[in-house]
Amino acid sequence: MTSGPKIESAAVPDVGNIAISNRIFYACMVILSGTYVFLIVAMLLADVWYVAEKTIDAASEAADPWQAMWSNNPISVALADPKIQYSIRLSLISCTLAAVLSVLFAVPIGYLLSRHNFPGKRLLDAVLDVPIVLPPLVVGLSLLILFQFRPFAFVARDIVYQIPAVVLAQFSVACAFAVRTMKSTFDHIDPRCEQVAIALGSSKAQAFGLVVLPEATQGIMTAFTLAWARSLGEFGPLLIFAGATRMKTEVLSTTVFLEMNVGNIEAAVAVSLIMVAAAVAVLILTRVFGGSR
């Protein structure tokens, strides 16, 4: 009588070693994540500390320290400068226009890429990533060269190194980020609701406007925020295509560059903090608005 094949018993896992391995795994994850978060927070705190030091120095040398802390700190001095006031106004206007245009173009592009297959879709998808991967200076130089050829050359005098160039340069880069956001938004919206609306007699436009867009509201707000913040921080294309002329095409990002060029580090740091505050305020408002829907 022959015996059957021997069945090897499964190895019992070492619970102690697994626990140690898990601790090491999460420790590595936490260390790497914490290092990057620390870098971000440290950069912001360094700017705040620098401004605080200059404020204390100004207060210590003044007859009225409290008054000096309010009026002679770098941020107050920067906000009182007419040139910086102009750059703040132009930044708010140009960033808002660029963000609105970005969303206006990103919604149909993201919808088509998400819902339809067509010849050249992969090529179009790759082309839309070009402004993201190109060096910013190259984007500005390409825009500058573009307006040397017809039909763009006919309007070059009214756009290049003028205020419209600021909006166009910001839009050229920011729209690519908005497109990615909207495509992801439409990818996560169930197409069956739209198909049911069409089956019940709605046109494609009605189904899109009454069913899809309300579902994409939070994604639209996210795209707007991302485009606005990206426009605010844009520098390379602006420097090449719009220039950095005081009281003309100067925005906050170029103000930092101009103040650094003349050695006014206090004003440059103050303006950078204003940019951070503006970006954080828009982010908070958008998160609150998006979460309330």
UniProtKB/TrEMBL annotation:
Where found?
A: Cell membrane
List all membrane-crossing ranges: 24-46, 90-114, 126-147, 159-179, 207-229, 267-289
Entry keyword set: Membrane, Sulfate transport, Transmembrane, Transmembrane helix, Transport
Describe its membrane topology: Multi-pass membrane protein
Ranges where the ABC transmembrane type-1 domain occurs: 88-286
Q: Does the keyword Transmembrane helix apply?
A: yes
Quaternary arrangement and interactors, per the entry? The complex is composed of two ATP-binding proteins (CysA), two transmembrane proteins (CysT and CysW) and a solute-binding protein (CysP).
Q: Which PANTHER family match?
A: SULFATE TRANSPORT SYSTEM PERMEASE PROTEIN, SULFATE TRANSPORT SYSTEM PERMEASE PROTEIN CYST
Instruction: Give the family per the record.
Output: Belongs to the binding-protein-dependent transport system permease family.
Name the chain's protein.
Answer: Sulfate transport system permease protein CysW
Q: What is the lineage of its organism?
A: Bacteria, Pseudomonadati, Planctomycetota, Planctomycetia, Planctomycetales
